[in-house]
Design brief:
Blueprint (H helix, E strand, L loop, with lengths): L8 H8 L6 E4 L6 H9 L5 E6 L2 H10 L7 E5 L5 H8 L6 E5 L4 H5 L25 H7 L2 H12 L4 H14 L5 H9 L12 H11 L2 H15 L5 E6 L2 H13 L3 E3 L9 H6 L7 E7 L2
Parallel strand pairs: 1-2, 1-4, 2-3, 4-5
Antiparallel strand pairs: 5-7, 6-7
Helix pairs in contact: 7-8, 7-10, 11-12
The structure holds S-adenosylmethionine.
Amino acid sequence: MRAHQPVMVDDVIKYLNPQPGHIYIDATCGTGNHSYFILRKTSGRCTLICIDKDPRAIMRARSYLKEFSENVIFVRDGFENILEIVKNLKIDIPSGILFDLGFSYEQISNGSAGFGFRQDGPLDMRFDPETGISARDVVNNFSVDKLAELLKKYGELKNSLRIARLICEERKRRKFETTRHLSDFIATCGISGKGIHPATRVFQAIRIYVNNELENLSAGLNSAAKILMQGGRIVVISYHSLEDRIVKNFMRKTHNLKILTKKPIVPDEYEKKTNPSSRSAKMRAAEVIS
Ligand SMILES: C[S@@+](CC[C@H](N)C(=O)[O-])C[C@H]1O[C@@H](n2cnc3c(N)ncnc32)[C@H](O)[C@@H]1O
């Protein structure tokens, strides 16, 4: 299996600017690729708190970062709980935090996590497979109106009511249990997507809902601005406009932040070509000024 390729590594390192002896947080450590470069930049002489909700990601990162194990603290939790996480660790004030949002290549290509429509698997989509409700519950049990609302809000689908109605008709015939069933069915619903699979936005909407992603992002960012030292950096990579809007507004409106990226940084053509997952990425960075 191809491994997750980290996005915009050079820019992440430039803006996070990790220094030996300081503490950094990788709020979405995933497989640990960005973590690796943060640790390498300081020759393994910083402390890195690696957070992820997904226990499978923590296991992969633990193995990937073995050579730096003395400098890394792994935390299986949500970044929305970052205030408590930092408090419980009883560490000094961190100097930077990275959020690389969304999902990793390992998550999307592992059918058993139920994230992707290209691999068949149980319809789940939870980053933490032990809490909350699964995509299966949403698709099989939500009312037409509730489904339509979340498809519109999180998938920005214009014909959300029609799609919700079609889903509810289909589930009377056969309950949705697998990602393949849902994606094949959505492909018959007549959604036009500019060069993207018709199921892309439906899956995005359900995944955002199931993981409470936008509310968690706001909570994580607000907490980040409170826990960092003066001069500390917040670096965020987002992958769709709903996330980027939250990040942009947060950086503009938070009084103790100075924006370092007037416009979002995007991958160059070479990166987009060699790492298709980076195509929609936007990076923004800010510095704590008080
Ligand atoms: C794009 S991947 C990170 C990849 C990582 N930067 C790398 O290069 O290997 C995003 C990760 O964020 C995790 N995640 C998503 N929401 C989270 C949350 N609220 N708290 C903690 N981790 C979260 C996912 O489980 C996933 O592993």
